[in-house]
Amino acid sequence: MVMALSFIEQAIREIQEEAGGDRVVMALSGGVDSSVCAALASRALGDRLVPIYIDTGLMRKGETDRIRQLFGHLNLQVIDAGEEFFRALRGVIDPEQKRKVIGERFIRIFEREARKAGAKHLLQGTIYPDRIESQGGIKSHHNVGGMPLSIEFKRVIEPLRDLYKDEVRNVAGALALPPEIQHRMPFPGPGLAVRVLGEVTPEKIAIVRAANAIVEDELVEQYRPWQCFAALLGLGTGVKGDNRIHGWIVAVRAVDSRDGMTADPVLLPHQVMGRIASRITSEIPEVARAVYDITPKPPATIEYE
Ligand code: XMP
Fold it and tell me: pLDDT grade, residue 147 (50/70/90)?
């Protein structure tokens, strides 16, 4: 706690110094990292902070409404950019390319909004493992490696750049953010797009969104895993009613981890896995099969792309 308090003072000072007298635009996703950033920056800058939530169309069920409720008091701007993202993702199959396309859209939208708001700098909730994995070429985090070089901001301010996730959660506690934010599961910047193998379409996102909601409903409260979600793998055969169908195969994943760099599968009781499979295949007509992923990281990653 002492460490968190001194970190808070130091981060506020740093944000003030880096911003000078300018306005700062920030990407608020509602995860613990960006929420902590917003709370720090709001204390540092007051109404010179311009927090923007981009609804990419790739968010979880109910997420945009939740963000409005939680952060409406910070003069939050909500940008409805779903169509723009889906258009940019059309025909994109390669996972790295997907991340690049999404990262670029994010930045372009921020540049656009920052210009409108007269903001000179970009504030981001990048944490230490994001930087390490991007430097190591493991993947491009949308908020690091996916950033185009022609960026127009004078500065990119990253107050959490040296923290691990559990340290960020401690800071959230010290800032008295709601427990819901403090304990929130990580959600990747590229959103549900990295939970759909291959091309991203609005139809596939709707299916994976419904499956994610079921997995969270069954597991978050009960098991408190580091992360749990569903991903859309591809099409396979199934039988629904009297018909043999071509339906989606959904992977269900729940892992425990300290920092996201390694992870172990949560060994769920068969009964729980069975109920999840039954709900996903009965509540989502397009899904024919659900499988549970028991691969640790490494060799698998947590997300599917
Ligand atoms: P992987 O899939 O590489 O993910 O094992 C490790 C952790 O990072 C999250 N993740 C991301 N977070 N931007 C983020 O802010 C991203 O582009 C991104 N990709 C993965 C993932 O959900 C897991 O917690």
Answer: low
SS3 assignment for the chain:
CHHHHHHHHHHHHHHHHHHCCCEEEEECCCCHHHHHHHHHHHHHHHHHEEEEEEECCCCCCCHHHHHHHHHHHHCCEEEECHHHHHHHHCCCCCHHHHHHHHHHHHHHHHHHHHHHHCEEEEECCCCHHHHHHHHCCCCCCCCCCCCCCCCCCCEEECCCCCCCHHHHHHHHHHCCCCHHHHCCCCCCCCHHHHHECCCCCHHHHHHHHHHHHHHHHHHHHHHCCCEEEEEEEEEEEEEECCEEEEEEEEEEEEEECCCCCCEEECCCCHHHHHHHHHHHHHHCCCEEEEEECCCCECCCCCCCC
Does residue 188's CB lie within 6 angstroms of at least one atom of ligand 1? yes
CA nearest neighbour of 283 among 189, 192, 183, 212: 212
Q: Token pair for residue 196?
A: 């759909």
Query: Ligand 1 pocket, 190 CB below 6 A?
Result: yes
pLDDT recorded at residue 107: 82
Mutate to test the pocket of ligand 1, among 36, 163, 303 (most ligand atoms within 8 A of CB): 303
Quote the ligand 1 centre to 237 CA distance (angstroms): 31
Q: pLDDT digits over 174-198, tens only?
A: 999 999 899 889 899 899 999 999 9
Closest CA to 146 of 88, 87, 98: 98
Residue 136 has pLDDT above 80, yes or no: no
The residue among 38, 30, 283 whose CA lies nearest residue 160 is: 38
CB of 139 closer than 6 angstroms to any ligand 1 atom = yes
Average pLDDT over residues 53-69: 94
**pLDDT tens digits for 41-52?**
999 999 999 999
Structure tokens at 277: 């499979």
